[in-house]
Design a protein that fits this description.
The structure holds two protein chains of two kinds.
Chain A (H helix, E strand, L loop, with lengths): L1 E4 L2 E4 L6 H7 L23 E4 L6 E2 L10 E3 L3 H16 L15 H9 L21 E3 L9 H9 L5 E4 L6 E4 L15 H5 L5 E3 L11 E7 L8 E7 L4 E7 L12 H5 L14 E4 L2 E4 L2 H19 L4 E4 L6 H15 L4 E2 L7 H10 L17 E5 L3 H4 L1 H12 L4 E5 L12 E3 L6 H14 L5 H7 E2 L1 H8 L6 H8 L3 H12 L4 E5 L1 H4 L4 H14 L10 E3 L6 H6 L6 E2 L3 E2 L3 H11 L11 H10 L4 E5 L3 H4 L3 H10 L2 E6 L11 E4 L8 E4 L4 E5 L12 H11 L9 H11 L16 E2 L23 E2 L18 E6 L15 H6 L4 E4 H7 L6 E6 L2 E10 L6 E5 L12 E4 L6 E2 L3 E7 L5
Parallel strand pairs in A: 1-5, 15-16, 15-25, 17-18, 17-21, 18-19, 20-31, 21-22, 25-26, 26-27, 32-36, 33-35
Antiparallel strand pairs in A: 1-2, 3-4, 3-5, 6-9, 7-8, 10-11, 11-12, 13-14, 13-27, 23-24, 28-29, 29-30, 32-39, 34-35, 34-39, 37-38
Chain B lengths: L2 H28 L3 H26 L31 H25 L3 H29 L5
Helix pairs in contact in B: 1-2, 1-4, 2-3, 3-4
The chains are: A alpha/beta, B mainly alpha.
């Protein structure tokens, strides 16, 4: 359709309103309540326009498009009306531009400037107390124009349902929960309200006084925390070389401007005084500073001598889920080409190796099948074993949006009553480690009721009859499953009914599914469910394992694994070996290398003499901490490359200072297989270098002859050797990135997998037999302990714990039920001792109704209360993932003896 | 281009489609793997469909037949080597073989187009090449579905 604005012809569609069409055509209309994300509100009336043939002025944000309509935005009548409205908005608050943090970014100021209003005509300002209670956000209601964007953003975009309008008439104000201070309300401090606020009413507390907008340089990059891959914009005051704030990129396909509290505020680690800025060498048990030449020469000589004396397989390396694709690529190349071993792995082993094992066996490929923006297409979403709003908050927001919009029904299955359960049609708490029993029982109901997709099964799957034989076994009858899982039989039936009868249903899961000795079985069972209901190969459906770290997908894709080169090309395949030998002009080792846990065992046994750790912290991330400590102590030569002197680095012989995500370029690959660009916003501190530069220095000292002059040289080599990435060149990535597979430069990338056929041809159904966890409660250890993350912290805390505000919100704790606390006479926040067969920790109790009786939960981020001192190192036999999610434990009161 | 020349080109195309059909059908009878059988069966059916399309065009040249050409050639077939036919081949190799054959067919018509100065013949050959490119893209999409996997 075509409309005319001020005589200018403008293309428009029925979905748009007049304001949107005007803005798209660079025609400014003052607007304060409308935002592209929250839509129209018709509240502020600043956007009024005149339409030919209509006597009254109309708010352009609510004005529907009609073919040929003639709109005028700048007539005297329009401007006068706008002037009155904006004048009243200015008069109703303390809009003192001189000292306002929003000066230069204020949309009210823009409107006043456009309309030529120098000062407000009236003094109608109400006095409000400033709300300084939140760690990161400052609320000044005297500047609030009651536009409602923050309320809409909180309730409809991030769907945290905290903000609202309180009172009426002139008394109207924004409130948190039932008018609590922001800091004590249920606000998770995601900052969405702040990002949407058009004036200076909700502002970034820590940015105050650190620079005006025009003094700040902005750089778009990718969040360094979880695997969602949110695009963010970092604002740096170059005069002081200081990060002032971080905001979400509004038009990003991954996060649509949303961020979580870590992504937005957890950046203090970058400019922390604890950063290592110079190489450190250990001498006589003490660390001393060294120059790069000395450190590199020492490493190269030591690696060479160990290789000569004990062979290449006596060296091992941990790649990293926190560094770029390019850096992981050269890390594995270094080990494979210069050292001559495939002993390369990283902590994907500890989070999603069972996903890959289970999905590769059933579907042929282990990647997340669908994309984030497709979430809104699902009619039913099942979340199982994923505390989504804590670990992947922006994906949680997308799911909550879909639920709130009425399109999607949510099923949540988790031992904890997680926040997402509040949005669920059905919530059930099953006991940790009973996933296969629960899902098999659901599938039995589906088959018995003839709800399975018979056409899909006939055309696209195999082994249905064998599968059915196991699933229809009486042991999976809902009444029997109820005894094992703790989920009522009727609930199991309701879940089966809702899930199977949805047109499109998706499953989202994370480490609650994968970190078990039956991790591969759990994953395969989810694949079974999605296969028999025909939910794979279509938008909005799929099996969606949520990757936990910013680049865990990329680290796997780049061959940071002991059995595959980049692109999952097997090291044991002679053709693949020949390909890499030709490319790298060196004989390649065809022997599969060691996994993370095998490396630690090897170091403990003395078979691994040298370990090179890049950006990982096995001291806190690996199971059975005492064993890890002993292994690190026994390692003859340990090199750690990191931003900080981590707990693991304390054992190192050489520590190399690495650049942070804001100090380098390259790419991360997010959970939905999207490759996105990191851009440099700051110089690295002191003598810190990008990881790829450090690796190249060591390699060349070992006579590698590498000649990467820029990170894009590595990207080009990745394109050449990694078929999935062949079309994702440096030049092509763009602002939205591209999703692999993208095999050529003409290919648009792939939003969802298995469209017409599975990667293995036919999907393989497998009736998985339920097996209990490795360690169950007994008289001595009567509780089931499970572990996980909290929203405000990340992984081993190396990055997130450098932001004090995050630490103040989220410290160590053990979550326990009211019943267990009463039985043990433990009060809330009381410090308790938690013990398992492997050790003890002391930590405050957090008593809640959100966890079932007999189950306790400990986040694993904290070195002062390390959950992994307690976890069971028993492994899944195929994926070699440890059982972090279940072990037997006990809790004791700490009695101080006098 | 006279009627005889037109029919000659059509016959050539039909012959190629029949040969391809026979080839895929032969493979269907030789392989045991159900997934592979399904793929080649599907390919054989597609070739029959292509033959029917060309016959329709040959006998009813006055009735417009839409020969679709992809707006963009992904060029995936060009990145793989022609795999050897074997009863043990993997599904991805089967699709690679098929898309290579479509690539070769498209190249054949393109070369034919280049070798003639008759503008009508050139146009027809380029249309035939476009048709083969469209088949190639369909197979490339299927190949992309299954060839680029995550497995470790």
């Amino acid at each position: 359709m075509k409309i005319f604005i001020n005589g200018k012809p403008c293309q428009a569609s029925q979905k748009e309103n007049v304001l949107e069409v005007a803005l798209m055509n660079n025609i400014y209309i003052p607007h304060l309540c409308y935002h592209s994300k929250t839509g129209h509100a018709g509240r502020c009336r600043a956007c009024v326009v005149e339409v030919e043939g209509i006597p009254d002025l109309k708010t352009s944000c609510t004005l529907e498009i009609q073919e040929g309509m003639k709109v005028y935005t700048n007539t005297d009548k329009v401007k006068e009306s706008q002037r009155v409205i904006v004048d009243l908005a200015l008069s109703s608050g303390h809009h003192d531009c001189l000292s306002c943090e929003q000066n230069g970014n204020c949309e009210l100021q823009d409107a006043a400037y456009y309309l030529g209003i120098e000062k407000p005509s009236y003094d109608l300002a109400e006095e409000f107390e400033m709300d300084d209670s939140s760690e990161f956000i400052y609320v000044d209601r005297s500047k609030c124009i009651k536009c409602g964007r923050c309320v809409a953003g909180c309730n409809n975009t991030v769907v945290n349902d905290v903000l609202n309008f309180g009172n009426r008439g002139f008394e109207t104000k924004i409130i948190f929960d039932s008018d609590l201070p922001m800091g004590t309300s249920s606000c998770v401090q995601c900052g969405e309200c702040m990002q949407l606020c058009p004036v200076g009413a909700i502002i970034d507390k820590r940015a105050i006084g650190k620079g005006r907008p025009w003094e700040l340089e902005t750089t778009e990059t990718v969040c360094p925390y979880c695997g969602v891959g949110c695009k963010l914009e970092v604002h740096v005051n170059k005069k002081h070389n200081e990060i002032v704030k971080i905001t979400g990129v509004e038009d990003s396909i991954t996060n649509n401007g949303m961020l979580c509290v870590k992504g937005r505020y957890g950046f203090d680690f970058v400019q922390s005084h604890e950063r290592i800025t110079q190489p450190l060498l250990k001498e006589d048990g003490k660390l001393r500073e060294a120059e790069w030449d000395e450190a590199i020469a020492l490493i190269a000589n030591k690696f060479k001598s160990i290789k000569e004396e004990y062979g290449p397989n006596s060296l091992a390396g941990l790649a990293s889920a926190k560094v770029t694709n390019e850096e992981n690529f050269v890390f594995q190349k270094f080990f494979r080409r210069e050292v001559g071993t495939n002993n390369v792995d990283h902590c994907a082993r500890l989070c999603h190796s069972s996903t890959v094992a289970g999905l590769a066996a059933s579907l042929g490929s282990g990647a997340m099948t669908n994309d984030i923006s497709g979430i809104k297409e699902a009619d039913v979403i099942m979340i199982i074993g994923s505390d989504t709003s804590e670990a992947h908050p922006v994906i949680a927001a997308r799911i909550k949006q879909a639920v709130k919009e009425g399109k999607t029904q949510l099923i949540v299955l988790d031992p904890k009553k997680i926040k997402m359960a509040d949005y669920a049609e059905i919530y059930a708490a099953h006991f940790p480690g009973t996933d296969v029993m629960l899902l098999n029982s659901i599938m039995q109901e589906i088959i018995k009721n003839d709800w399975h997709d018979k056409k899909y099964i006939e055309e696209r799957l195999e082994s249905f009859e064998d599968f059915k034989e196991e699933i229809l076994n009486d042991k999976y009858k809902p009444e029997n499953a109820a005894k094992i899982t703790g989920v009522a039989a009727e609930t199991i039936r309701d879940i089966a009914n809702m899930f199977a009868n949805a047109k499109t249903a998706a499953v989202f899961y994370a480490m609650g599914i994968t970190q078990h000795v039956t991790g591969r079985d759990n994953v395969w069972t989810i694949a079974n469910l999605q296969m028999i209901t025909g939910n794979l190969g279509k938008p909005g459906g799929g099996v969606n394992p949520l990757r936990g770290q910013s680049n865990v997908q990329g680290a796997c894709d780049m061959g940071g694994l002991p059995n595959v080169y980049p692109g999952y090309q097997k090291v044991s395949d002679p053709k693949v070996q020949e390909k890499f030998e030709n490319a790298w002009q060196r004989k390649m080792n065809p022997k599969v290398g060691l996994t993370v846990t095998e490396m630690i065992d090897g170091a403990y046994d003395g078979k691994i003499k040298a370990l090179y750790v890049m950006g990982e912290n096995p001291y806190l991330s690996d199971p059975d901490q005492n064993h890890v400590i002993a292994a690190l102590e026994r390692t003859e030569f340990l090199v750690v490359q990191d931003m900080f002197l981590t707990e693991t680095a304390e054992f190192a012989d050489v520590i190399l200072p690495a650049a942070s995500y804001l100090e380098k370029e390259g790419h991360f690959t997010n959970t939905e297989r999207r490759i996105q660009r990191l851009n440099k916003a700051l110089e690295a501190p002191g003598k810190a270098k990008s990881d790829w530069e450090i690796i190249q220095l060591i390699a060349n000292k070992m006579d590698a002859g590498w000649n990467y002059k820029h990170v894009k040289d590595i990207t080009a080599e990745i394109n050449e050797l990694t078929p999935q990435y062949a079309g994702i060149t440096w030049e092509r990535v763009g602002r939205d990135g591209l999703q692999w597979p993208c095999p050529t430069e003409n290919h648009p990338g792939t939003a969802y997998l298995h469209k017409d056929r599975f990667a293995r041809g036919l999907g393989l159904l497998n009736g998985i037999t339920f097996q209990e966890p490795d360690e169950l409660p007994d008289e001595e250890y009567p509780l089931i302990m499970t572990t996980g993350r909290v929203l405000q912290q990340f992984h081993t805390g190396t990055m997130s714990r450098k932001t004090e505000g995050l630490n103040r919100i989220a410290g160590p704790m053990v979550m326990m039920s009211v019943e267990d606390a009463e039985k043990l006479e433990i009060g809330n926040s009381e410090k308790v001792r938690v013990s398992t067969r492997r050790g003890s920790i002391e930590t405050p109790a957090f008593i809640t109704k959100r966890i079932s009786k007999g189950v306790i939960y400990i986040p694993f981020h904290y070195k002062e209360a390390p959950a992994n001192r307690l976890t069971n190192p028993a492994l899944d036999p195929v994926a070699k993932i440890p059982e972090y999610k279940v072990c037997a434990a006990k809790i004791e009161k700490i009695v101080n003896e006098v | 281009m006279n009627k005889e020349e037109f029919e000659k080109i059509m016959d050539l195309g039909i012959k190629r489609e029949i040969e391809a059909y026979k080839f895929y059908n032969d493979v269907v009878n030789r392989v045991d793997d159900k997934a592979l059988k399904d793929i080649f069966n599907d390919l054989a059916k597609q070739e029959l469909g292509h033959r029917n399309l060309l016959e329709e065009l040959k006998y009813n040249p006055e009735i417009p037949v839409k020969i679709s050409k992809p707006s963009i050639d992904y060029g995936i077939a060009e990145t793989v080597e022609l795999p050897e036919l074997s009863i043990n081949m993997k599904p991805a190799e089967a699709l690679a073989l098929a898309m290579k054959k479509e690539q070769q067919a498209a190249e054949f018509y393109q070369e034919l187009a280049e070798s003639t100065s008759d503008m009508e013949i050139k146009k027809l050959c380029l249309e035939m090449a476009g048709m083969e490119l469209s088949h190639k893209q369909k197979l490339e999409n299927a190949y992309t579905d299954i060839a680029y996997i995550e497995s470790f």
